Amino acid sequence: MRRCVYTVILGDYDEPKPIPIRTPGFDYILFTDNDRIVAPGWQVRIIAKCENVQRKQREIKILAHKYLPDYNFTIYLDGSTAIRRDIGHLVKSYFRGGMLLKRHPSRDCVYQEGLRCIEINKAPVLAIEGQLEAYKNEGIPAKMGLYETGIILRDNNPEVNAVCEAWWKELFKTCNRDQISLPVVMRRMNFTPSVIPFNIAHIYIKVMQHKATVPEIKPMKPRVWYLTPFSTEKDIGGEYNAQIARVPQDDWVCIRDGDTIFLTPDNQWGKQIEDIVQAATGKYDLIGCITNRLRATTQLYKNEFSNDHNMLNHGKIAKELYEANYDSIKQNKGPVAGLFLLFPRRTWDKVKFREKCDTFDTHFGKELIKKGGKIGIAEGVYLYHWYRAWSQDPLNYKKHLLK
């Protein structure tokens, strides 16, 4: 399967952006009419100069199957777009075939988009007004969805190609604003794309001002996704798997039980977790914490099970460990408890949580160790754990875990 990322820069409108992270198996292709352009990392394809560079840019953007017929899958990026992360992870996490688009962050209506284009003088007023009037007469509804077309992921297949051909014809007979015409064409053809929110797309790409030169684009540091999964079916392991599957592969996951509490201020524990991630990247596959109540004593403060529920006392312990150990990680020979699990998404790619199992956290750690994974304990992170304090036998009470 041949795959590529491509962009189009014509008429000196933009300058090529560096590619800080290259995805294996992808070609990076730049279409331009500038035979003197400097574009490190891009395969440059020169096209003939033309009078209407904007229309030609739109043509190459829309008709990927015509200009890149040898590729099974393409990702189009506007010339003002800079890659921030391994874009292959976006494909793996969110692309399900057909076409994937970015949802517009502030509008959901072709009529609103048309009025906005008039406000900022993006196209001739009469052309847009005539186009919108024709759509009203056709019965095109308001608020049926709108996409930002600065990024387009698509398969090279008959259905997608037919939509793109129709999109180009619609654009050619109306004004040059492709975001107005695309939802209309899709509605006519009964085609539904996959959609990602603006904030997800922003993880992978950064939209910059046109003609912006970026000498260096540093990859973003890993994002930590804080999850507290719950299942009314009492399948916590299954719910863990379902939620983690949506996390981008370069990011980290911090799972906590619902009966745990951080006891240092938000601006402390949040930054602390980020710094622990930086310290652990490439060294640890799974990290636990110190706490007050667990069956196993390895993660207990001073190895003692606590029946003290005075939060002020536990706050003092949290402060003590934060100041003394901060981002220190101690290797642990066995699994860590599920009240706090910090790990990169790639760990979960190796080992999944066992479903409908009350020891899903222990199983996760044991399987990870079998596959050569390294487990640690963050010695500076202390969480208060309620741990069945309402039960007379908290160590052995398990009715809440499984049916």
Please tell me the overall pLDDT: 90
Helix content: 25-40%
Between the first and last Cα atoms, what is the distance in angstroms?
46 Å
Low-confidence stretches: 212-218
* Number of continuous helical runs: 13
User: How many extended strands?
Assistant: 16
Question: Which radius of gyration do the C-alpha atoms yield?
Answer: 26 Å
H/E topology pattern = EEEHHEEHEHHEHHEHEEHEEHEHEEHHE
- Structural class, judged by helices and strands? alpha/beta
Largest sheet descriptor:
7 strands, mixed
State the strand order across the main sheet. Answer: 3-2-1-4-7-6-8
Assess the beta-strand content as a share of residues: 15-25%
Shape: elongated
Characterise the protein shown here:
With 403 residues, this protein is α/β, with parallel strands linked by helices. Helices cover 34% and strands 21% of the residues. It contains 13 helices and 16 strands. A 7-stranded mixed β-sheet has the order 3-2-1-4-7-6-8, sandwiched between helices. Strands 12, 13, 14 and 16 form a 4-stranded mixed β-sheet that branches. The protein has a 3-stranded mixed β-sheet with strand order 10-11-15. Strand 10, helix 9 and strand 11 form a beta-alpha-beta unit. The longest helix has 16 residues. It is elongated and about 80 Å long. It starts with a strand and ends in an 18-residue tail after the last strand. About 2% of the residues have low confidence.
